[in-house]
Amino acid sequence: MTSMNIKQLFSRYKIMALLIAIAIIWAFFSWKTEGGFVSPRNLSNLLRQMSVTGILACGMVLVIIAGEIDLSVGSLLGLLGGVAAILDVTYQLPLAVNLALVLLLGLALGLFNGYLTAYLRIPSFIVGLGGMLAFRGVLLGVTGGLTIAPVSSDLVYLGQGYLPAQLGIALVVVLFVLALTLTWRQRVNRLRHALPVPSLWRDAVKVLLIGAVLLIFVRTLNSYDGIPVPVLLLLALLGAFSYLSMQTVFGRRIYSVGSNMEATRLSGVDVQSVKLWVFGIMGVMCALAGLVNTARLAAGSPSAGGMGELDAIAACFIGGTSMRGGSGTIYGALIGALVMASLDNGMSMLDVGTYWQMIVKGSILMLAVWVDVSTRSGR
């Protein structure tokens, strides 16, 4: 097989390669920890651990697809999480009001970043770098450099709560029926438009495989305490963002802007508005991640979100999002987040030094970008 064929094969089956990589990582850490890594308790902890990075990655992948970057998300996460803790501890606002205010603030700050980038034409790298410093400074100011604790049990439930086992089983049934319905609708639509239709047995195997994975996923988590609430939120975001990016006009415009902004503008699309709202969505994701992070810690910390932007960006690149823009998927970014969380969790269990953890994660990020560059240059 030639080098060109290998590149095309890897490019086409990049997600499959990532899943194989995760299987190898899990097998290695399971062997080194004598099965402790794949215990239901640790897997539950691993998924909760990846939820914050995963939420950020859902927004970041849209930003990168649009051809931009946002380096401020870690500091913005910390700021919004700190605001949530202050509203809860100091002002004792009801959870619903707290959530609404923090999400609105996240949207406003995200739109502000988008306005600076899209309308004032300040490079998004500089906007993000300035925001990284400014938001961290505001966080230190509003918290006085002190940890805000303890937050209420209602807020803590967002980061530490679990879905009852019965609801977990019900969720499997709903998701399986949804997968079956979407697959059938896809077949009907392809037939209606005289497009090639995959053989029935392939779709049947795909749906059964999805059902098996869902069942194993829920049974494993139910054998501990149930599905963690942050993981449930991440699953909901996966569905919502996948639909947004693949099934809506706005989603297709994001890809178009990242692929060829000038051609998209000449075709009548308001490119500036698309970029503005992509950053607005990123701000909302920072708010959600900040709320979950504060709930997990049961406190608002002035150091929260440190290096969060790098984890989110790395998750996107590892998951197949192109650094050039115009290409990427939500599920790929979440698989990338799972890779990062698995490495963090496994190396922590093995008591690997922090410096080695940083070296490994940095090396994997560079490898992911190299793969993207090499596979695209071969086309």
Describe this structure in words.
The protein has a two-stranded antiparallel sheet. The chain has 16 helices and 2 strands. The two termini are 16 Å apart. Helix content is 77%, strand content 1%. The model has no long low-confidence stretch (mean pLDDT 90). The chain is mainly α and 379 residues long.
Compact overview of the structure:
With 379 residues, the protein is mostly helical. It has helices spanning 3-12, 14-32, 40-65, 73-89, 95-118, 124-143, 153-160, 165-192, 200-222, 229-247, 249-259, 261-266, 271-297, 308-318, 330-349, 354-377, and strands spanning 162-163, 227-228.
Topology overview:
Layout: H1 3-12, H2 14-32, H3 40-65, H4 73-89, H5 95-118, H6 124-143, H7 153-160, E1 162-163, H8 165-192, H9 200-222, E2 227-228, H10 229-247, H11 249-259, H12 261-266, H13 271-297, H14 308-318, H15 330-349, H16 354-377
Antiparallel strand pairs: 1-2
